[in-house]
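Chapter review: from sequence to fold.
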Amino acid sequence: MLELQDVTKRYGDRLALDGVGFTVGERRLTGFVGGNGAGKTTTMRIILGVLAADHGTVTLDGAPLAEADRRRFGYMPEERGLYPKMRVLEQTVYLARLHGWTPAAAQRNALELLERLGLGERVNDTIESLSLGNQQRAQIAAALVHRPEVLVLDEPFSGLDPMAVETVQSVLADVAASGAPVLFSSHQLDIVERLCDDLVIIAGGRIAAAGTRDSLRAAHGSERWELLMSGDAGWLREQPGIRVADFDGGWAVFESESDAARRAVLAEALTRGEVVSFTREQRSLAQIFKEVVR
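The token string follows.
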């Protein structure tokens, strides 16, 4: 488990991180979200040892991180950092060799990974000749080729088309399933919500919310309720103590003035047809994000 405790960082008079703390569990995909300048990249660079914290600790399985530990990490920066004149396979093998892999093993793993990421036909192309989306896939391959035990990715889905997003999602899920803690940032909240086990929201250098998807939804639950029934739900508009927010045939979203009014809705629905579902409206990560960063 990767853990940050009370991490603080200043740039001159500006407090970039203020007591940041969260965990990235083994076999867990943790999404790290926040607005521009919120502190995501600074946090990741401190985890990787690129920057030093002014205060606080970063530990792996309870022990402070040493340089040898960080060699077991995979890291993808937001800025592309590959050698533009090198060929894709040559670059990927080179990075695996830097982590101690034999030439044969590095070649084998690089080819397998590039094929899976959809770059199998581009292995002999130079990095600079690739489209931006394919350069992003190559950057991801560079972070994964040595089979890291911890993975930290800054905006890995940037510039990817929907098919590439699905491919990268599958690869990252497999990395997590192998036992690695995986932390990645993204502005694409729909992807984070779909992929992640845990979420960390940072705003103004502080952790605004953190937890599993379900725990965050429970903590920031909607006050609206959703009804789905076999018959038409138009009668809800006449129900006392109820305000209908959205409606389509047998589906409706409503607000109630009291628990009694809500119970009356369910009782009435049961007399009018089959009730398929009657639940509190599930809030999206985007809605929760807007609420906690205000």
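Two observations follow directly from the output. The CA atoms of residues 43 and 115 lie 32 Å apart. The chain has two domains: 2-218, 220-292.
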